[in-house]
Amino acid sequence: MEITHGYQYDKADGHNSPNGTWYKAESGGKKYFLKKFQNPKFPKDGINPKLYKSKKQECDEWLASKKKLIKALDELGDGRGNIISPRDVFREKLCFYQVTYWIDVQTDSLDKIKRYSYDDKIMLLKTYGAALKKVHSKEIIHGDLKPDNILIGKSALGKPVAKLIDFDDSYFSKQALSP
Asked: Is the Cα torsion angle 178, 62, 168, 139 positive or negative in sign?
């Protein structure tokens, strides 16, 4: 087992994604989703001072942007409702990590969702639309909307509800990314 910033995880049980590796982690008896980003990497000591300064500035700006995003998403909820937002982002040695609550939900295929009742499909669409509207109310662009980033949870009445995840590619609409 590895421990990073107080989060314990099995490094051998990592799952690769396009921009990093994620792990099921634990801290204080709670489960978390721990993502180790592939980029950016904090510069090593001893490299060309000009390059070090440039890379460090890039990392500082990236981290500040992530923290600003988390702060805005925190205003929408605690990260456990229908918007599963990051709880923390930090650097450990040369790598950056992000922590989100672990959510135990089903991941129904689109074929299975097609077989839901009409009312259940409407509930999914309403909860998805409401979550996205809340995110957009903070002028946040999700940046990676796709079926894999919408988990299916259950309401208190057992009805399916959409849970929006994966804010790795999110940004503020007034700070559009370069192509």
From this structure: negative
